[in-house]
Amino acid sequence: MPAASAIKVMVVDDQASMRAMIRRALQDFGFKDIRDKGAASEAFAAIKTDRDHLVISDYNMPDMDGIDLLRAIRTDDVIGKTVFIMLTGSSDREIVQQAAALGVNNYLVKPFAPAALKEKIERVFGALT
Fold first, then answer.
1. What is the 3-class SS of the chain, one letter each residue?
2. In which residue ranges of the chain is pLDDT below 70?
């Protein structure tokens, strides 16, 4: 499995404080190549260009929600297999079912501890160290 330092990450959340908290946690886990965007449409364009390995995205965003972003990624021939972890402030079963149907790799309900985020990432990539 790749070490955290070899994984390119895109964090997508309309709240700057949440992006900063996730970035800090990822850095603590050993990630080096971390980008973030406050809008899903901007993130999608960047993911297509940068070919990130992991997307950590909020569900509830104003321009394009996390489900729409996941759908756009999954239907793209080039980036369709990108690992996607959905963050949501709601444990709404319908959101989780939609994400699962679209092939989300994992999801996490906010608020969450950094250790929970690490565990979700390691379920997909294996041990980060």
1. CCCHHHCEEEEECCCHHHHHHHHHHHHHHCCCEEEEECCHHHHHHHHHHHCCCEEEEECCCCCCCHHHHHHHHHCCCCCCCCEEEEEECCCCHHHHHHHHHCCCCEEEECCCCHHHHHHHHHHHHCCCC
2. 1-2
